[in-house]
UniProtKB/TrEMBL annotation, chain A:
Pfam families: ABC_tran (PF00005), oligo_HPY (PF08352). Residues 5-255 form the ABC transporter domain. GO terms for molecular function: ATP binding. This is ABC transporter ATP-binding protein. It is a peripheral membrane protein.
Automatic annotation (TrEMBL), chain B:
Pfam families: ABC_tran, oligo_HPY. Residues 19-278 form the ABC transporter domain. It comes from Sabulicella glaciei. GO terms for molecular function: ATP binding. It comes from the Bacteria. InterPro entries: AAA+_ATPase (IPR003593), ABC_transp_ATP-bind (IPR050319), ABC_transporter-like_ATP-bd (IPR003439), ABC_transporter-like_CS (IPR017871), Oligopep_ABC_C (IPR013563), P-loop_NTPase (IPR027417). This is ABC transporter ATP-binding protein. SMART domains: AAA. Belongs to the ABC transporter superfamily. It is found in: Cell inner membrane.
């Protein structure tokens, strides 16, 4: 099976007045055809910047300074803006946390969707409208014909996100990058969206990068997980491997602090301290200052070690012994 | 086990609840302005709109209890929290503070009751004055209310900050110099500085990262023990509420649909809405599962469905649900549910 996307040693840095922020610093992963990769991390871990780098939407002062983003043998980091434009929204689509980032508030939904179809394909307007209607139906919007004539403000938050997903699906992309698309939604609505997305990934063979801070969401959705911390992947592997037997102390801490993993009423297992500023990262392992296992060895930069079949972690003292769930 | 329960209920009966809500309602009305009135007179289809944000809610909270209030957007949970905290007057119904109607208290008692109830807000960015130093944010209220002598003021502020997990060395700083989690700690220190007994937390951890959220939740639990606090913990996150609460109240479109001890709700949910809410929560234990979903959208509170508000989305709805509002009935000791299905069994 060939991979849809292969990212190798991606580096995206922001050149600010205060110094160089290495938001993404040597990230590598592959997404197989029809697979879902959960990219997990807390604020400032670089998960969203990784997504933006792939689709070529990193704004100044940020820049992809190194590495390769291989899509069908082409390096997206090196192609021209025009070539990127042809791929973006066509072969690779993105869904944002706030659907109003995708939708234009002063245009009707049909105008926006038809425009998107026509931007990449030479079809007549009627065919484009059909495609738009089918896409709305596919994401579970009732009476799509009437809804096409509505403006974005006439939709509820959950419905808007469905419209944004429908737009992403218009060209049956091979890869969708979803950046926290359900974070702002209520749980019942989030459940509906996750169900639709899961169905779509299974039926259309679209690959998905699902960026989130919520491990519980990707647990039920993803095939593989990559956990990011301070611009690097600290652990990656199959969902059940990473969630059932995490290796990196950060992953262990993250899973431990999920309330449902703790006994009711007892103190939650917590990670002390907070995410270090990317401007002044300590030498060696970035998690060192918050880690109970850290010692002098951790002053060296750990590599991503193959520790179990299909599971890698960037740590000198991984949790290789059985972890009590 | 039953002996423990008996003992618990005996002590509960002995003391009056710290706060009690009786038939509490809050309506928001949009009155027509001059142009609207004119348009209406000329036959335009405009009308005054009323939202029943909170609709006849009864709730009592005992001293030392943690009550979790759960619901989706627009269910009225924040409005209820604000009325409980005394920062928004109810349209109807009464709030009782230690068994006394807050409106019947004399001014000194009313101020005392208000001071004993504090609120912690969701957004640690919007709820702190950006132009005030931390020491003033934390110290202003106790100073104003004369809770600390001028001489002991500095040490008092230091102590409040330390208790919330902040280094007093930072007390000359402004809110923007802190991270989200630390700001939430400032908000907590501010609330605790006036020695409250009852705290309303409105989505107090919703804006925080998972690892920081765990730190703040632990702080809440530690403070509860240290200071003998009572909490109304408002959240949309069931897993947080499950972890923290003794009792859980579930709201849907302004009404309480279910209320029970926490274990009961999560083990034996009765109301179909609670059941679907629980099944929609993503669980970290789940693997590649089919997400089960509740059908439909949350209806607009401007125009809520007749009868049981949940009937258009409910898989078990029958004729009666469309016309009659179900009453909140006790279906097991301490377990209340507002569903007609309980009459059928």
């Amino acid at each position: 099976m060939t991979a849809t996307l292969e990212v190798r040693d991606l580096q995206t840095h922001f050149f600010t007045r205060a110094g160089v922020v290495k938001a993404v610093d040597g990230v590598s992963f592959t997404v197989g055809r029809g697979k879902v990769l959960g990219l997990v991390g807390e604020s400032g871990s670089g998960k969203s910047v990784t997504g933006f780098s792939i689709i070529g939407l990193v704004d100044a002062p940020g820049r992809v300074v190194g590495g390769q983003i291989l899509y069908q043998g082409r390096n997206l980091a090196k192609i021209s803006e025009e070539e990127m434009r042809q791929l973006r929204g066509n072969r690779i689509a993105m869904i944002f946390q706030d659907p109003m980032m995708t939708l234009n508030p002063v245009l009707r939904v049909d105008t926006q969707m038809i425009e998107t179809v026509l931007a990449h394909e030479k079809v007549d307007r009627e065919t484009a409208r059909q495609r738009a209607r089918d896409a709305l139906g596919m994401v579970g919007i009732p009476s799509p014909d009437e809804r096409l004539k509505s403006y974005p403000h006439q939709f509820s938050g959950g419905m808007r996100q469905r419209v944004a997903i429908a737009i992403a699906l218009l060209h049956r992309p091979e890869l969708i990058i979803a950046d926290e698309p359900t974070t702002a939604l209520d749980v019942t609505i989030q459940g509906q969206i996750l169900a639709e997305v899961q169905k779509l990934a299974a039926t259309t063979g679209t690959s998905l990068i699902w960026i989130t801070h919520d491990l519980s969401v990707v647990a039920g959705l993803a095939d593989d997980i990559a956990v990011m911390y301070a611009g690097r992947i600290v652990e990656e592997g199959e969902v059940s491997a990473v969630l059932d037997a995490p290796l990196h102390p950060y992953t262990v801490g993250l899973i431990g602090s999920v309330p449902s993993r703790n006994k009711r009423g007892e103190p939650l297992r917590q990670i002390p301290g907070m995410t270090p500023s990317l401007l002044k990262l300590p030498a060696g392992c970035a998690f060192r200052s918050r880690c109970a296992r850290a010692d002098e060895v951790c002053l060296q930069e750990p590599a991503l070690f193959d520790l179990r079949p299909g599971q890698r972690a960037r740590c000198f003292h991984p949790h290789l012994e059985e972890v009590a769930a | 086990m039953s002996a423990v329960l008996d003992q618990q209920s005996a002590t509960v009966a002995a003391d009056t609840p710290i706060i009690e809500l009786r038939n509490l309602s809050r309506r928001f009305e949009k009155k027509l302005d001059f142009a609207g009135k004119l348009a209406k007179r000329l036959g335009a289809p405009v009308r005054e709109e009323t939202v029943h944000a909170v609709d006849r809610v009864n709730l009592s909270i005992r001293k030392g209890e943690v009550v979790g209030l759960v619901g989706e957007s627009g269910c009225g949970k924040s409005t209820l929290g604000r009325m409980v905290a005394g920062i928004m007057p109810p349209s109807e119904g009464t709030v009782l503070w230690r068994g006394q109607d807050v409106r019947s208290l004399n001014p000194a008692e009313a101020r005392e009751a208000k001071l004993r109830t504090q609120m912690i807000f969701q957004d640690p960015y919007a709820s702190l004055n950006p132009r005030m130093r931390v020491e003033d944010i934390v110290g202003e209220a106790p100073q104003f209310h004369g809770l600390v002598p001028a001489r002991g003021f500095d040490t008092y502020v230091d102590e409040q900050m330390r208790r919330a997990g902040l280094d007093p060395a930072f007390k000359k700083r402004y809110p923007h110099q802190f991270s989200g989690g630390q700001r939430q700690r400032i908000g907590i220190a501010r609330a605790l500085a006036v020695k409250p007994e009852f705290i309303v937390c409105d989505e107090a951890v919703a804006a925080l990262d998972v690892s920081i959220q765990a730190q703040i939740l632990n702080l809440f639990m530690r403070l509860r023990q240290e200071l003998d606090l009572t909490y109304l913990f408002i959240s949309h996150d069931l897993s947080v509420v499950e972890h923290l609460s003794d009792r859980v109240v579930i709201m849907y479109l302004g009404r309480v649909v279910e209320q029970a001890p926490a274990e009961q709700v999560f083990a034996r949910a009765n109301h179909p809405y609670t059941v679907s809410l629980l099944s929609a929560v993503p669980r970290i234990e789940a693997r590649k599962r089919a997400f089960t979903t509740v059908q439909g959208e949350i209806p607009s509170p401007l125009n809520p469905p007749s009868g049981c508000h949940f009937h258009p989305r409910c898989p078990h709805a029958h004729e009666r649900c469309k016309v009659e509002v179900p009453a909140l009935k006790e279906i097991a000791p301490g377990h209340f549910s507002a569903c007609h299905l309980n009459d059928r069994a």
